[in-house]
Amino acid sequence: MKKDLLKMADLSQAELFEILDLAAKLKYEKKNGIEHHILKGQSLGMIFQKSSTRTRVSFETGIYQLGGQALFLSPRDLQIGRGEPLKDTARVLSRYLDGIMIRTFAQQEVEDLAKYASIPIINGLTDYCHPCQVLADLLTIREFKGGFDGLKMTYIGDGNNMANSLIVGGLLAGMKVSIACPKTHQPDEKVLDFTKNYGNMFMMTENILEAAQKSDVLFTDVWASMGQEDEAAERRRIFTGYQINAEVMDAANKGAMVQHCLPAHRGEEITEEVFEAHADEIFEEAENRLHAQKAVMVKLMAKA
Ligand code: CP
Ligand code: NVA
User: Fold this and answer.
1) What is the pLDDT of residues 64-84, one digit of tens each?
2) Does residue 221 have a pLDDT over 90?
3) What does CATH list as the number for 8-130+289-301?
4) How far is the CA of 261 from the centre of ligand 2 (A)?
5) Is 221 a catalytic residue?
6) Neighbouring-strand partners of residue 126
7) Which has the least CB within 10 A, 83, 117, 264, 291?
């Protein structure tokens, strides 16, 4: 049966670690000039309903490095943009391509695409989640901290797609997870249900210093995500104070890492000073999108 990556909760802990191990191996080999054309002759379709720098470029170069090619499919050019049903598009594209990465709004669209396609579907961000990003984040944490055991990860800000995936991914990896967010902007109910299996490994508060207490890895994300541009002013008001700054860093453990999926809005969710002090970790995280996604494509698309 074909496999998809639609959300973090699709993965068991063992599958998560297999992807991270393969990503680390591919990264090491790439840096040492060892090439693998494991996906030779394969094509990945990339449907983008929203903007992207990292996701587009890392998938496109990633499949090329694995011997395949990527097709950038804009809804403006596809017949989807003129109303052709997704379920028909899924069945047609399955006859040409070997996998599809899709970035869109509703998670249901990705689930529908996966239902009707006979090739692997990879979620490249929806309003609900961002699993590819969190695989890269976990790879980065493991590189800088040497593992996950005994670590505490904290997310500060909007209970959005990043929060949803980080909570599931962090708990799956074995870390304690805390989140500080306004009561009105908590993570998705399904994610909060997931945390119930993890007892006191998870905590949620409105207090950023309480959440950051003794933390080893601090995350944040933009206050207004793609598609929420109209709410930007209102969100600026709601999220003022939900910022990674010097005070938050003081509450965290000495040597705590900072991660940001990017793009970042300095002066909003993170100060310029903290961002630049942790730029090495943040840009390694961005690089790791490439290695993590190559591992995902190999796992899902390589012919046995
Ligand atoms: N972090 C991330 O997904 O970046 P892009 O929106 O540039 O793809
Ligand atoms: N929460 C952000 C993440 C961007 C990578 C958004 O959805 O726009």
Assistant:
1) 999 999 999 998 889 998 999
2) yes
3) 3.40.50.1370
4) 8
5) yes
6) none
7) 83
